[in-house]
Amino acid sequence: MKEMGGHHITGLCVLKWGYKFFADLLDYIKAPNRNSDRSIPMTVDFIRLKIYCNKQSTGDIKVIVGDSLSTLTGKNFLIVEDTIDTDKTMQTLLSLVKQHNPKMVKVASLLVKRTPRSIGYRPDFAGFEIPDKFVIGYAFDYNEYFRDLNHVCVISKTRKAKYKA
Length: 165
Known about the structure:
The protein is of the alpha/beta class. Helix content is 20%, strand content 36%. It contains 3 helices and 8 strands.
């Protein structure tokens, strides 16, 4: 919150994968508001990116926006993402967002994968670094399965075969 300056923040959740982390992070950010006379105004918005089929990146990033991105102009944004791996997705999203002249943009990611495919992008805020493995649970899915798990884990070869698209 210090880096965001205590100013009005719009949380931009990258769906579908980031929704659980987004909700938990907002609860954590808003907790001081409940026990203080000082409040940090927040609004939320959502964007959806589609890049995977059967755990493989399609190489094509499809952006599906809820509201017009013109609403970004002059605002402070905290983009909340589930995982930073090859960085291509976040670089594409940041490029798109910056075209609309936000006042400030910060990125929070639950996971950062250690992968040789990375071009070196680091989010402003990161939860954990993990090996270059495909994970499921805590809203991470494999072909729309396993989002409901309360933990993050690596999917086995047996389950990959069973739930292949």
